[in-house]
Amino acid sequence: MVRIIVVVLVLADCTPDGDGPRSVLMPAMLNRQGQPTMLAELPKLSVSATMALFDGNGDVQTWKLADGVSMSFLDGVLVSSRGLGADVMSADVSGTRAMPAGDLATLDRELGTIRSYRSGDLYQTPLRDYLARPEFRQLVLLNGDAVFADTSHELDRALAFYRDQIVVISRNRQAKGAALAELEQEVGLRRAKLTETRDNFTVRSQLGAKQRDYVYLGGEFRKNARVSLPYGQHLSLADALFGEGGYSTRTADASRIYVLRASPKPEGFGAVTAWHLDARDPSALSIAARMELRPYDIVLIQEQPITTWGRALDQFLPSLVNAGLDAANG
């Protein structure tokens, strides 16, 4: 049941009465406008505004605000509204029009009934209760409500009226459903396109068909390797030192870590810049975390001097032993 009460006054020659718009709309002001003016009030919301006559269709007059809000009246009775939020789509007010005129032959006080249809439910209010109880006259209509005033013997007319309103509501719902289905289909197509693009990118990267930038790890790393630079991210020297298995602390000389970078300028072909890091000082590792590697950089860790001697002996002693055996067997 609706709780928006619209009190409409057609202003012609009126005098100020109280505060608010009524005290501002002076007769001289209205006469200067040269057209009928209406004051529409929403007491529950404590708002009011003036409306101008916009159009007429037979006995139905439509009044409109500058912001597009409109209300249509038949013999001073509201039959439809637009732009209020809780709008009256349409209403059969033949019985209501008869009540002010006292035409009880059409709508008897004892037999008259006001029927309201809302979202599949039918409500009815006896006319005698409607006239006797103010709260019934203050009920607010919601968007899509259908109201029919008749006698208890005119149910067929009420049913036909409700059917027409249900058809209009159903068509609006079908249109909204179709629009939502179309939107879901469009979103699904775009999502599928993004998924296909992502999958193609992944496959191309795995097969090496996507151009990548690399840095190279050599020397006393546990695994000499070519490392891809990440997409949209940076690779630091610390990432290279501690990723990919890191380097051997047993054989590597932490005081001789180098980053080799060739000159990108053609005239500087063969020119190499070497940055030296002494990782024996733990504070130097903070520099490694902040140094950004670039494409084609080479990170080289040299071996310890004793590692050099050990490897030399490993290669020399077998040859010496084999030479001695050959001489003994000779």
Q: Can you offer a commentary on this structure?
A:
This protein is of the alpha+beta class. It has 2 domains: 7-172, no CATH class; 214-310, Outer membrane lipoprotein wza fold like (Roll), CATH 3.10.560. Helices cover 36% and strands 27% of the residues. It has 9 helices and 14 strands. It has helices spanning 21-24, 27-33, 94-101, 127-132, 134-137, 155-206, 237-242, 284-290, 305-329; strands at residues 7-11, 37-42, 47-57, 60-64, 70-74, 77-82, 112-118, 121-126, 146-151, 214-219, 225-228, 252-262, 272-277, 298-303. It has a 6-stranded antiparallel beta sheet, with no helix packed on it. The protein has a 5-stranded mixed beta sheet with strand order 11-10-14-12-13. A hairpin with a 4-residue loop joins strand 2 (37-42) and strand 3 (47-57). The protein is rod-shaped and about 140 Å long. Mean pLDDT is 75; it is low at 1-18 and 100-106.
